[in-house]
């Protein structure tokens, strides 16, 4: 236990000096058996800080390694291939715009067809009314002719 505690205190002291801190006793490493709880708390806090910083440094180095690999893989891409992909993307965007315009026209045509359908229904109603009136007029005309023929035949 004494070795572990001494190792922690020494590594923490070195870390404190590296970060610009020093022990209250002027940089002298305290004896682990006589140091107070304050020294132990500082030692724990510094070791936790070191652990967090080392984890962040590891993560940053892994990210840089991945970024470097990705950049290296981009160097092998043919410039013409990249330009062709970009041109294709532009063409696809232009086609999407044209499809949108055509869809708008289809909607406008559908509205016009709906209006024409409403007019057709209205006209059909008028034709039916006119046909009924026409049939009524023809019937009355036939009755009048029949009455005339009967009157002439007597």
Concise account of the structure shown:
The chain is 84% helix and 0% strand. The protein has helices at 2-18, 37-74, 79-152. The radius of gyration is 49 Å and the shape is elongated.
What gap, in angstroms, lies between the N and C termini? 147 Å
Shape: elongated
Radius of gyration: 49 Å
Strand-residue proportion: under 5%
Specify the structural class: mainly alpha
Low-confidence segments? 17-24
How many runs of DSSP E, i.e. beta strands? Answer: 0
Count of helical segments?
3
Give a short account of the largest sheet: none
Assign a percent range to the helix content. Answer: over 70%
Order of helices and strands: HHH
Blueprint (SSEs and pairs):
Elements: H1 2-18, H2 37-74, H3 79-152
Helix pairs in contact: 1-2
Walk me through what this model shows.
By secondary structure, the protein is mostly helical. It contains 3 helices and no strands. It has a domain at 1-76. The longest helix has 74 residues, at 79-152. It is elongated. The termini are far apart. The model is unreliable at 17-24 (pLDDT under 50).
List keywords for this structure.
154 residues, mainly alpha, 84% helix
């Amino acid at each position: 236990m004494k070795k572990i505690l001494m190792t922690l205190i020494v590594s923490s002291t070195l870390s404190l000096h590296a970060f610009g801190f020093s022990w209250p006793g002027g940089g002298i490493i305290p004896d682990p058996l006589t140091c107070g709880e304050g020294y132990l708390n500082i030692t724990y806090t510094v070791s936790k800080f070191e652990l967090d910083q080392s984890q962040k440094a590891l993560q940053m180095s892994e990210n840089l390694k991945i970024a470097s690999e990705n950049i290296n893989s981009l160097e092998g891409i043919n410039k013409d291939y990249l330009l062709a992909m970009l041109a294709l993307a532009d063409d696809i965007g232009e086609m999407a715009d044209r499809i949108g315009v055509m869809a708008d026209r289809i909607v406008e045509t559908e509205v016009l067809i709906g209006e024409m359908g409403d007019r057709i229904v209205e006209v059909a109603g008028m034709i039916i009314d006119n046909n009924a009136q026409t049939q009524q007029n023809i019937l009355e005309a036939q009755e009048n002719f029949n009455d005339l023929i009967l009157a002439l035949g007597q």
